[in-house]
Batch of 2 targets.
Target 1
Amino acid sequence: MRKTVPLNNDWRFTEVFEEAFIKEDFDDTPFQTVNLPHTNKEVPYSYFDEKMYQFVSCYRKELFVPKQYQDNKIFIDFEGVMCFAKVYLNSKLIGEHKGGYTPFSFDITDVVRFETANTLVVMVDSTERKDIPPFGNVVDYLTYGGIYREVSLRIVDSVFIDNVRLESMNLLSNEKKLKAEICLSNHTRASGSASISVKVKDKGNEVGMTSLMVPISESAEHTAELVLDLDESIELWDLENPKLYDVEITLQCGDYVDLYERRFGFRDAVFKKDGFYLNGRKRKLYGLNRHQSFPYVGYAMPKRVQRKDADILKYELGLNMVRTSHYPQSRHFLDRCDEIGLLVFEEIPGWQYIGDEEWKEVSKTNVIEMIKRDWNHPSIVLWGVRINESQDDHDFYQATNALARHTDPSRQTGGVRAINNSELLEDVYTMNDFIHDGGEVVLRDQKEITGLPENVPYLVTEYNGHMYPTKRFDSEERQMEHSVRHLRIINAAAMDDYISGAIGWCAFDYNTHKDFGSGDRICHHGVMDMFRIPKFAAYAYKSQIESQREVVLEPVTVFARGERCIGGVTPLVVMTNCEYVDFMYGGELVGRFYPAKDRYPGLTHPPVIIDEMLGEWGMAWRSGEFVGYLDGKEAKRKKYSEAPIASKLIASADDQVLSSGDMDATRIVFQIVDQEDNLIPYINETIKILVTGDGELIGPSEISLVGGCIAAWVKTKGVKGEIAIAATCSRFSANELVIQVD
Ligand code: GAL
């Protein structure tokens, strides 16, 4: 018996908290009805006071539990509440939790009533409490507030499986094994024995199985370990073939039967002195840091939107790694990383500051909570057990490392620092190397940073960011420099055998505190903006993918005579994975240009750089055309008009079909293009968005284009039907979109 009941819809919410709200008979009808994931306060896109969401609020919900479960154990599971929660059931305090990024559960068996209403009340403190990481000093990101991840009831028998840690062993030999460590709970007053079986299935077909009898004593927790021989034919989880199997663990104890299911991938991942090895093969890691925030609703985005970010990183940016800066992120995001083969470096919450002993205790608990939630994700290859960019603290970091190694002996630890000669207590020296300022030095030799006589496993975990903040609507020259700085660093990382890889700052722009960013509460450090719309730097990464996956041909230009200083568009950097590019100006061939291998010897696909001048200031401007070739054949063409004119407003949705039930959402991108279908970056029309039917818009319905385009998310109302999206500006109406909700 195991049942999970989602509790995501129909909460009653108010932006204050009073003791009276805890009482069962309190009348919450004046409260707002909300669904999870929920943010305690929608914020404007920019220039807002970050204090606006820092308050204590109340969530209430009625629960009905049928009588059939009265002999069961009942838990309530919270996946993420920012940042301190006190939970009451039927006026009784059942528990509290510190920390906004990790899950927590409470046993409500003794308090819950059957066949009648139960009142669940959650006090949510979203202030920046100094006793909880990352708070205590300034932080370069916003943490938002509310019950921003899912909540559910878990109903199990009195003897049940609490958690399972899966570990693959000897994968590079012909004695491949799966070890399962099973945490059991016996809440009965009887001792006896239980039989446990572990089955590995591939699309329903059993490919391995073992079982064991274990003694269990009354009212106790137990750990059983089973090792299963894997067949030679087992496929390994890899970047290109992220093969996943289903593992079923069955517990039988008298009449009690529990089935615990988990997806798993078999892979061997290790950072060595000379780089990172996946399944015995050395792989250079290319990644970006991801904050989990979105415009308006902060962290409160549902499953589909979380998953989409992983797809963007893998497919739109061509990366093989992400760092979940600076905290554990949504399980939906991690699930998708497992499915598509995107490696993850996950770390505990924190930012530069280490607090007092009480604070450190919360941080150590974060280590355990993070690992116990996520230890079965094949995508995760490294635990970050330091507070990002903090100073050394021998005792604290010895403790976090020991906890991580004890909880999950199968993974290495890292811990991100920005200081040289930092004490290496981790398995991997993970370093934010912000040396590149556009000059000669791009990345430092690891020994210069570590101060150690020998090379150690080493990974660059940040670069660029504040060294060159760039907005999507910045000038072409700035965007070009931004793009080539990213290229230079991935080139340098590729050329250094003792750097496992480099993870840049960062994937997406993010809202931040007043002490950072451009004064607008945004750090414009992403290679994409907050709406996940690419800046030119995004193509520095994307152009490294294989052309069989997608042909990339992205000239870093708006193609106009007078955008750059002095005029012209050269040197013109074309991010491409084509073998060569023909460039035509005014219909005449200027030349055939090849990737700049001499300047970027480490890159799989160096950019094509065109230096030819196209006439001088005062001469007529003409059209441009780029044709990329593969195997001697035209593979992609891009044309620029000499006289761009706003021609249409295009609306495009990430998804055509959404799900009813729990909240679902998708992004709609609005852009104005010219007669060649190129985005025109300097148009600043206001767009009016009208959403009708069975969905609603997240954020304002009137927004102005930023850099020629903008996006918005549309969310469901829980019911099946259709959502229609219409958008207009002073010059155009967009194509109408209709999204199904099934
Ligand atoms: C780093 C920090 C990041 C971000 C970045 C901006 O020092 O770890 O969180 O603030 O700088 O470049």
Note: The chain has a mean pLDDT of 97.
Target 2
Amino acid sequence: MPAFSRRTLMLAASALGALTLTAGIAAAQVPPLEQKTTYKVGFAQTESNNPWRIAQTESMKAEAAKLGYQLVYTDAAGSAAKQVADVNSMIAQGVDVIFLAPREEKPLIPAVMAAKKNGIPVILLDRSVDPKLAKAGKDYLTFIGSDFIKEGERAAEWLVKNANGKTKIIELEGTTGSSPANDRKKGFDEAIKKAEGFSIVASQSGDFARDKGRQVAEALLQSHPDANVIYAHNDEMAIGAISAVEAAGKVPGKDILILSIDGGKEAVGLVAEGKIAAVVECNPRFGPKAFETMARYAKGEKIEPWVINEDKFYDASNAKAELANAY
Ligand code: AHR
């Protein structure tokens, strides 16, 4: 029997898929992955502008190196268009699997679909894509990451218990159109709506970036001088907000409570110092879970649509003790 390459088989499968589609039957499933001793794997990172992203990249690179796999790494530098091009370039280079951390929910759909069409399974890392446009187990294998809605809820629950009269909230949102910004807002805002006496006086994007967070916090503190809480969707914006609070002549942790998500070393240190009140961790250590999921798939195991990362929580009660373990 002649030996066919995986690509040839995929071409045949995709032709068959076209036929079945014409016949009105459901579209093809996630492409298969052969069991091999080594792989060429793509990791399409969204940007590298903060410790969270750097920790995630290091974890992926370390695990690939440990397994002896070739890693094709790209950094989209905060551009969804570049990230789509990066994925297309990985497809052209014939990678076996693509790990994708999609910058935004909708613009990365064409990249997911292009990989599928070319017979390459995609595993989404840390951020997801629009569930109405692409589905786990059909268009991509699975989403590995935290529960962002729960992260927002945990921040709100901590605030409601520990507010001590601080109830007027400025929210600094992450990148518009990204799944963590959408879900951290949803989880927090819905929990706050149920809490008596609390209100979100302003909510605006700081694009998950320190200086943008500082600028937005500065402007919102001017237009809402009665605000006494800042909830930032990530550490970078929370750290920017500390500068804005101090520039407004107020004391972070005393006049204004700052809440954050991510749990990098700098932010956990600021919790220990009392400048940030509490941080919900968003675990960036993806490497072991990402490659283990890939191996399970190659073995023929059924993969769950969402492989959940567990997150810690830091406040004054544990920040000093946990500082050494933070990334
Ligand atoms: O998708 C996770 C988020 O992306 C992190 O909270 C943030 O810091 C990063 O850029």
Note: The radius of gyration is 22 Å.
